[in-house]
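Hi there,

I know you've been waiting on this one. I reran it after we fixed the sequence typo, so this is the corrected version. Both the input and the resulting structure follow.
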Amino acid sequence: MKRGNWRASGTDRQRQHSQSQWRSRHRPLHDEQEYSSESTAGDAGSSTAASSAPELPGFYFDPEKNRYFRLLPGHNNCNPLTKEGLQKKEEEKKRSALLAEDDGPRKKAPRTGLNSALLLQKRHLGLLPPSSYSRLIHEVKVSGMQRHRLEVQSSNSTSPNTDNFHLIVADSACERVFTVNDVSHGGCKYGIMNFHGYRKGSLSVEMCDNLYFTNRKVNSVCWASVTHTDSHVLLCLVGISQTPGCVSLLPASLFSNFNPDQPGMLCSFKISTAWSCAWCLNPQADKTFSTGLSRQVIVTDAVTGRRATYLAGSDVLAQQFAVRAPVLFNGCRSGEIFSIDLRQRDRGRSHGWKTSRFFQESAITSIQLLQDENYLLAADMLGKIKLWDIRVKRSVKQYEGHHNEYAYLPIHVNEPEGLLLAVGQDCYTRLWSLHDSSLLRTIPSPHPAGKDSIPNVVFSSQLGGSRGLPGLLMAVRHDLYYYSYNKDYQDGLTLEDFPKNVHSNVPSGPAHR
């Protein structure tokens, strides 16, 4: 380069530098606003930049400070940097953002162009069958559900509920919800929640509990029809110390003042360490229940106590009876799903009595038969949820997005509305279309994620009975939430608005051990 050209280029650089300084001092206001908006957009994309940053062993990348920091494994510092802690912080940040978005007045439609007005128009034009209209309108309602916190009232206590929910299970009509709460001294408390106010368009909850405590962990719960539909509750209790496990059959009338002098049949069966239980509603096996144990299944007559034992190759973690025939379906820790026809006599060591048998890749945590009992839903500990055609022993659908690694998590099916629900180990509640397996909505937990903060849910189009309200009931820690279809939903009434002699507690009984 010639010297004259070099000097000219240097002069040009100085002139450009002075011009840029002048522009920065005299920048118009709207330019500053544009610049700030651009910088905000850049901040929003910082997470993307962080994800693209290469991972260095022993370091982590902070997207806010745009630099690497050293991890301190096993350090004595009170606030060491660990991958688990950083990941938890990032997940909590994501949950808070999704929770704020979920609380917004407008929510994203589950499908593009799907809204109530368009569906109604197609129905009037005859372009949409009634069954499809009902299913799609529920998808629209589910996508717009709003969260409301419910106060759990008790007729014999004015103090708020401070015991964490461990399990909630609704009866067949969703009129009542049986609850298991962890109490502070290490035991469990049982109760039944009743719903009021739904005829006025709101929902309030009354807890009817009783002094039935146990120091043993509750593994599984299901409703039982002994004297009438959902007259009892079946519980599987884990043994401790010198006390073996057992299966208890509690009458639901213990948690109501209806017929307090005749609480019903209360039984306890010596069945040790049952993982799962199911009640049979088929008349050919009347008043029969099953329990899944370690490498075996026990089918018991609740009246006579007579038992039948079936050997299995693994722990039986999930069970359900078919209704049309006395057939029991079982899900195992090995991933095997098999059925037992109670009408067969052969119970030898061979697998000849297994009328159907197929496998998933991991431990089965929950199974649900559809109304067409040729189809079965199964969830496992890899987060896979599959719909099986039992006749051909083949998976026909898979529902993506569920998260599970080791937890014992149920799935919930509402077939009339065409919905599948599951709460993941990440504490998110997900709803899928049962029809085409598309993910409709992901609901973040109102509480930070944790092993003791996984929500328990009940979904029904008739919470409280035949004239009840549609929506989702969610129990997280000691709080209860209701996700309402109705955007104009008003908070529920208190117990003072109802007669005092309705659904009150019975006098406390002896402790149940």
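Quick highlight: The longest strand covers residues 204-214.

Best,
R. S.
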